[in-house]
Amino acid sequence: MSNVSSPPTVSAQSNPQATAEGAPVPTRASLRKEASVGARIVFDKVSKKYSGQAESAVNEFSLVIEPGEFIVFVGPSGCGKTTTMKMVNRIIEPTSGIITIDGTDIRDLDENKLRRKIGYVIQQIGLFPHMTIAENIAIVPKLLGWSKERIADRVVELLELVELDPTEYAKRYPKELSGGQQQRVGVARALAADPPVMLMDEPFGATDPITREKLQDEFLALQSRIKKTIIFVTHDFEEAIKLGDKIVILGPRTNIEQFDTPAHILAAPANDYVAEFIGSGLNLKHLALLEVADTELGPVGAAAKDAASVGIDATLRDALDAVISGDGLPILVLDENEQPTASISIEDIAKRLGAEIEAMETEEGVK
Ligand SMILES: Nc1ncnc2c1ncn2[C@@H]1O[C@H](COP(=O)(O)OP(=O)(O)OP(=O)(O)O)[C@@H](O)[C@H]1O
Asked: Where in the numbering of this chain does the ABC transporter domain appear (predicted)?
C-alpha cells in the first residue's frame, strides 16, 4: 500500500556539501552546478517477510538501477511494490538480502544520513497544514543547519523549478493550494537538499486525469534536467510507459516478469502475464512512444486545405486522435513555425507502427 505513517521529516534529502558542520554558502548558480546526479542502487536477493504472514511479500528481489535512471515499478495490488521501495530508505528493514547505494550497504549508513540522500514523495503529500509552503520546503535544509539566507534562496529556486511563482505561493498555507499545486510542493520539498535518489510512491495518484497528465509532463521535463535516480511506483501501466526509462513489471511476491524499456515491453512482452497486464490497447500505447517527426509522411497536398493538423513534434497517438476526429482522412503536419510541411494518414501511422514492431522483434531475436 502507499500509506505512509512516517512524518515528512523522513523524506529527508541531502546535499553532500550541506552538512550541519557548516559548508560554505553557495550561490543559486553554484547550487545548480553542484546538483547531485543519481546514484547506483543494487538490490541483491532482497526478501521481506512480515511477521504473521505465511509467505514473504518480497522474495529474493534482485535489480541493478544505474545512476540517473527513471525506473517504474508496476504490478497488481499487493505484489510488494511499496515494500520494496520502502526498504531503500529503511522505513522497512529487509528480512534478508542486501541493498547498496553507490556500493555502500545501506545498513552501514546512519539512517538519517541515508534518508538525506533520498527524496521521498507520496500520494498523500504530507504537507504540514500549519506551516507555509516555504516553511514546508525548508524542513530538511533547516534540519541540516543551513543558513537562513541559503534556505530562502533554495526555496525560491525550488518553487521556480516546480513552476509555482514564489512571490505568490511561498507564504500561502497548503489548504490555499489546489491538489496538483500541493503535489508540486511535495516534489519541491523532496528535492530540497538535492538528493541523488528519489522514491515516489504513486505521487500523482490522487489527482484528476488532467492534472495528473500535467504533473507527469512537468516532472519528466524536470527529470531531464536534474537526472536523479528515481524509483516510481504505480498501478497504472500508461503512466509507467510515459515516465519510465525502464519498467519493472512485477508479479506476485515481486517476481520480475520483465525489466526493459517501455518500447521493448510493448513490442515484445516477455510472457503471457506481461501481455495480459499490458492489455489490448497495446498498439495504441505503443503509438504514444513514436513521433510524427520520425515517420514517413505524405505531401502537404494529400490533406484537404481545411483539414485538421498536428505538430511535427507530436506523438503518433496524438496524430491518430486527430485523424480519427477528422473522419479518417489525412491531416496536415505543421512545422515549428506552424506552417504546413507534410500530411499524415492512417496508412502512414500503421506502416510506422508495423515497421517499428518488426524491427524490435528482430532485435529481440538477435539478442
Ligand atoms: N505491515 C505489514 N504487515 C503485514 N503484511 C503487510 C504489511 N505491509 C504490507 N503487507 C503485505 O505485503 C504484501 C505487499 O504489500 P505492498 O504494500 O508492498 O504491495 P503493493 O504492491 O505496494 O500494493 P498496492 O499496489 O496495493 O499499494 C501484501 O500482501 C500486503 O498485504
From this structure: 41-278
Whether 295 is in the pocket of ligand 1, judged by its Cβ within 6 Å, is: no
CA of 92 to the centre of ligand 1 (A): 11
Q: From the alpha carbon of 73, which atom of ligand 1 is closest?
A: 21
Q: What is the pLDDT of residues 74-90, one digit of tens each?
A: 988 889 999 999 999 99
Residue 15 pLDDT greater than 70, yes or no: no
d(CA 327, CA 230): 42
Residue 114 has pLDDT above 80, yes or no: yes
Place of cell 509532463: 217
Q: 260 CB contacts (<8 Å, ≥6 apart)?
A: 246, 247, 270
Whose alpha carbon is nearest atom 1 of ligand 1?
50
Q: How buried is residue 19: exposed, middle or buried, by Cβ count under 10 Å (0-12/13-18/19+)?
A: middle
User: If we measure between CA atoms, which residue out of 346, 130, 50, 146 comes closest to residue 138?
Assistant: 146
The CB of 49 under 6 Å from ligand 1? The reply is no
Note the pTM of the prediction, 2 decimals: 0.73
- Residue 2 has a pLDDT of 36
Rounded Cα distance, 58 and 49, in Å: 7
Contact 363, 330 (CB under 8 A): no
Give residue 279 CA to ligand 1 midpoint distance, Å: 24
Exposure class string for 290-323: b at 16+ Cβ within 10 A, else e:
bbbeebebeebebbeeebbbbbbebbbbbbbbbb
Q: Which atom of ligand 1 is nearest to the CA of 75?
A: 21
CB 12 within 8 Å of CB 116: yes
Instruction: Using alpha carbons, list the distances in angstroms from residue 165 to 133, 159, 161, 171.
Output: 12, 6, 9, 11
Q: What are the residues whose beta carbons fall under 8 Å from the beta carbon of 225, sequence distance 6 or more?
A: none
Ligand 1 and 229: CB distance under 6 A: no
Domain-wise residue ranges, the chain: 8-279, 286-366
**Which class is domain 8-279?**
alpha beta
Rounded Cα gap, residues 273 and 281, in angstroms: 15
- The burial class, CB within 10 Å (0-12 / 13-18 / 19+), for 93 is exposed
- For 88-101, give the secondary structure using H, E and C: HCCCCCCCEEEEEE
Q: What would the grid cell of residue 165 be?
A: 511563482
Top-level class of domain 286-366: alpha beta
